[in-house]
Amino acid sequence: MFGCGGLGCPTATYLAAAGIGKINLIDFQKPELSNLNRQIMHFEKDLGIKDKSVSLKEKLGQLNSSIEIESFSLEINDKNIFKFKESDVLVDCLDNFHTRYLLNEFSLSEKIPLVHAAVEAYYGQITTIIPVKTPCIKCLFPNMPNKEGMFPIVGPTCGILGSLEAMEVIKVLTGIGDILSGKLLIVDLKCMEFETINFKRKEDCSVCSKYF
Ligand SMILES: [Zn+2]
Hints:
29% of the residues lie in helices and 18% in strands. By secondary structure, the protein is of the alpha/beta class. It has one domain (8-210): NAD(P)-binding Rossmann-like Domain (Rossmann fold). Helix 1 (8-18) runs parallel beside helix 2 (52-63) and helix 1 (8-18) packs across helix 5. The longest helix is centred in the C-terminal third of the chain and has 20 residues, at 155-174. It starts with 7 loop residues before the first helix and ends in a 14-residue tail after the last strand. Residues 135-136, 138-139, 201-202, 205, 207-208 line the site of zinc ion. Zinc ion binds next to helix 4. Its EC number is 2.7.7.-. Belongs to the HesA/MoeB/ThiF family.
């Protein structure tokens, strides 16, 4: 679980409640007051004191004490990401494309499925990358979107996209049902519209073309 914020809180909560046996929580930031509209597993008492990974681990441990949860206060880079090469699925709950691209490369090099979601304001998107089968994140977003820094998020947007991520993870792990492989689900909560589009691999993709 990469990111323990707006997407990470609901996603990890449903996965812990479902009894997913081992969950690694990775985030190096501390919760701030302005996060609390959406980062629902961080409370006022946690502000500025605990790292988000530690705060989330505490709450999930109270929800389900029979699973293994580890917290990592790590800023992910191209070296320390290899700590997680034994994962069965990678979950992108990040807020930036720099780390998201690293995660995409890692997913391909280690052949680990990656559930990707991103949110902004009332909007969200989600897809699942199956390495060397589906297109990758870089096929979908060849250029870094100009969205770094502060951007507004209406809290329930994270709840909905996080719930969808948890559902994708459960389906990837169990093999039940159809997942969003090669498909991008776009959620517009301002108009309450959900649309799924198919997307194709870029033949000259700078990342996944090395692996096909
Ligand atoms: Zn690609």
